[in-house]
Amino acid sequence: SHIRNNNSSMKLKRVAGLGMNAKELRANEQLTEWTVLDLNADANVKLPYDNDSFDVILLQLSIDYLIHPLEVLKEASRVLKKGGSVH
Questions:
Q1: Residues 36, 20: contact at Cβ < 8 Å?
Q2: 66 and 72 in contact (C-beta within 8 Å)?
Q3: How far separated are the first and last CA of the chain, in Å rounded?
Q4: Beta carbons within 8 Å of 9's beta carbon, 6+ residues apart
Q5: Whole-angstrom Cα distance, residue 49 to residue 16?
Q6: CA 20 to 30 Å from 77, out of 28, 55, 56, 70?
Q7: pLDDT, position 1
Q8: Are 53 and 79 in contact (CB under 8 A)?
Q9: Which SS3 state, helix, strand or coil, does residue 44 take?
């Protein structure tokens, strides 16, 4: 949910945010959609996205705090398009 400056001139069609703070997510004008979800609430975490949904996934300010990082990364892999990248 961290607000980040996107200085790129690239126009992105979809920028989905996922975090625990609805106020921060709502305030982030770069997001085209957002979801409040505690990734530590359940070891069997299920991201609310279809398979092969994203070209890029940014795990910013969160991966260090994950209780079940491998499960979250498996889910990230599921929603990542073939040839996509995780940062």
A1: yes
A2: yes
A3: 15
A4: none
A5: 10
A6: 28
A7: 47
A8: yes
A9: coil
**What type of residue sits at position 44?**
N
DSSP 5: -
CA distance 70 to 74: 6
pTM for this structure? Answer: 0.81
Query: Contact, 49 vs 77, CB < 8 A?
Result: no
Rounded Cα–Cα distance for residues 46 and 37 (Å): 10
Distance CA 18, CA 33 (A): 9
Each residue of 65-84: pLDDT tens digit?
999 999 999 999 999 999 99
